[in-house]
Write a structure and sequence with these properties.
With 593 residues, the protein is an alpha+beta fold. It contains 20 helices and 28 strands. Pfam families: HGTP_anticodon (PF03129), tRNA-synt_2b (PF00587), tRNA_SAD (PF07973).
Length: 593
């Protein structure tokens, strides 16, 4: 375990400990409350409670104060194992804990003795609080948790076990970091993130929307948003075309048989949108594209001389996400993958992955996003989670590790983060307010070619098993746009902005000259609009700026007489001729500045 992993594990243990501390404070202040579960999460922790009477936001400070009081006496955790009967006796008045104990009992009574041994009923105690728990705490909370490194954040409703048929509980969220300074930095970052929320900016800038009649998680794209999607997709394609990729098209549905063969049906059957035809055949909306691409490769017998085969398609995919997990464009039920697959020999895999590496870096350089690398590997402790031959996996992981080392990029190994069918190179980008996102991914798949019997004829005339490289540059256009909208706070660079120039005539007698400038820019493929409405000059200028258009050209008597344009950029104001302005725009667009 490297330093990064150790720090992460320590923080998760601190957060889980604080969930216990929260529950202890709540029980002292509200003794009739029923406790349920309280895990650590990405920015802190939460605990779900069944209160006998409602609490409000004003109660959070009182609970937080009690947590800090209790922390002073929390010097160690002790744990003991109990029989199911003993556990039930302890929690006899808490139906939620009894349900959890019953589940452990059912697992222990299964035939799988190895699993049963893992399912001990363990109780952890610290201070005056005991909870049913599997562990993952700090040894001495008083010494290891700074009292100013956490705070209670908000209340929310949450169904017990996430099932809307169950009772609605009260969830208390808390924020927790290693130090007060880290907590403060996060709260500032979060406030800035709220201002940049892509769901809000998407509406304000007229990029995308959701309709109740269409359904949640199914975004609709306006002309501006569609233009941005096409610009991004064309950029990715221009990079791929240099390396010999070819475009293919696939349908949006498939027989279930395809996913049974690929292994996706067993793993993700509950996440698929299913369709039953009038004849009783079962189909699914495609959640990914790779199994379809295997069939395009498999249409004929290939010589090793004809490889690699490189297929790319940008196409919509669909997954039946739970309503509570949907989040604007970040997690949707319909999303567009800029997907490509390379079919090649294992001896060519390294060279092909390096080409994709170059594409990834060329693309993200245009956004000023620096990349780090996560090498996502199997978890050897749970081999049953992964499909395919162990020796093949070993080879694939070795190739990816070589590439990471040879490119001399900062990287870390993440055990257990591999896809169920392949290890991955996951690229991590930090946005303008310091948040880290997983963006592009490259997967070296030795499993799917085996399942679909993909091969080439080698130099000896023998069938040779090939490998399959999965490459997504944006991942999904929707999620990438959610990141970019927030990264730029909607103020997109000129090459990506749906409207690049707004021309604002001062009065009606300036419209004719403004129209000439508009026509010149339009004829040179500049995305330009003419603000010649009836509103005041100030309102028209403010409207253009509110839409975060890169350049606003104000044209009045001075500009008409001098033949120059007054150009307001985001950071400065200048004057230049229409010809010079056009040249400046073309340069920015070409160089993606």
């Amino acid at each position: 375990m490297d330093k990064r992993e150790k720090k992460s594990e320590k923080l998760q243990n601190q957060r889980h400990t604080l969930a216990h501390l929260l529950a202890s404070a709540v029980l002292e202040l509200y003794p009739d409350t029923k406790t349920t579960i309280g895990p650590s999460i990405d920015d802190g922790f939460y605990y779900d409670f069944d209160f006998s009477s409602p609490i409000g936001d004003n109660d959070l400070r009182k609970i937080e104060k009690k947590m800090r009081e209790n922390l002073k006496s929390w010097t160690e955790f002790t744990h003991e194992e109990k029989t199911a009967e003993e556990a039930k006796e302890y929690f006899k008045d808490n139906l939620y804990k009894l349900e959890l104990i019953d589940e452990v009992e059912q697992r222990r009574s299964a035939d799988d003795k190895a699993l049963a041994d893992k399912e001990k009923i363990t109780f952890y105690t610290c201070g005056n609080f005991t909870d049913l728990c599997r562990g993952g705490h700090v040894e001495n909370p008083k010494k290891e948790i700074a009292p100013d490194s956490f705070q209670l954040d908000r209340l929310a409703g949450a169904y017990w076990r996430g099932d809307e048929k169950n009772k609605m509980l009260t969830r208390i969220y808390g924020l927790a970091f290693d130090t007060k300074e880290e907590l403060s930095a996060y709260t500032i970052q979060r406030e800035e993130a709220i201002k940049r929320d892509h769901k809000k900016l998407g509406r304000e800038l007229d990029i995308f929307l959701f309709s109740d009649l269409v359904g949640s998680g199914l975004p609709l794209w306006t002309p501006k948003g569609t233009l941005m999607r096409n610009i991004l997709d064309d950029f990715v394609w221009s990079l791929r075309a240099k390396y010999g990729y070819e475009k293919v098209e696939i349908p949006h549905i498939t027989k279930k048989d395809l996913y049974i063969t690929s292994g996706h049906w067993d793993k993700y059957a509950d996440d698929l949108f299913r369709i039953t035809t009038r004849e009783g055949h079962e189909f699914a909306m495609k959640p990914m594209n790779c199994p379809h691409h295997t069939q395009i490769y498999n249409r004929k017998q290939w010589s090793y001389k004809e490889l690699p085969q490189r297929y790319a398609s940008t196409t919509m995919c669909y997954r039946d996400e739970q309503s509570g997990e949907l989040s604007g464009l970040s997690r949707a039920r319909a999303f567009t993958q800029d997907d490509a697959h390379v079919f090649c020999r294992i001896t060519d895999a390294k060279e092909e992955i390096q080409k994709i590496w170059n594409i990834v870096h060329s693309f993200y350089d245009a956004f000023g996003l620096e990349l780090k690398l996560r090498l996502s590997l199997r978890d050897p402790a749970i081999p049953e989670k992964y499909l395919g031959n162990k020796n093949h996996w070993d080879k694939a992981e070795a190739v990816l590790r070589e590439i990471a080392k040879e490119n001399k990029i900062e990287y870390f190994e993440a055990i257990g983060e591999a896809a169920f069918y392949a290890p991955k190179l996951d690229f991590m980008a930090k946005d303008s307010i310091g948040r880290e996102w997983q963006v592009a991914t490259i997967q070296l798949d030795v499993n799917m070619p085996e399942r679909f019997d993909l091969y080439c004829i080698n130099e000896r005339g023998e069938q040779e098993r090939i490998v399959m490289i999965h490459a997504a540059i944006m991942g999904s256009i929707e999620r990438f746009l959610s990141i970019i909208i927030e990264h730029y706070a909607g103020a997109f660079p000129t090459w990506l902005a749906p409207v690049q120039v707004s021309i604002v005539p001062v009065r009606e007698n300036h419209i004719e000259e403004a129209q000439k400038v508009y026509n010149t820019l339009k004829e040179n493929d500049i995305r330009v609009e003419l603000e010649d409405g009836d509103e005041s000059l100030g309102k028209r200028i403010n409207h253009a700026k509110a839409q975060k258009i890169p350049y606003v050209v104000v044209l009045g008597d001075k500009e008409v007489s001098s033949g120059t344009l007054t150009i307001e950029g985001r950071e400065s104001k200048t004057e230049m001729s229409a010809e010079d302005f056009l040249a400046k725009l073309k340069e920015e667009i070409k160089e993606k500045k």
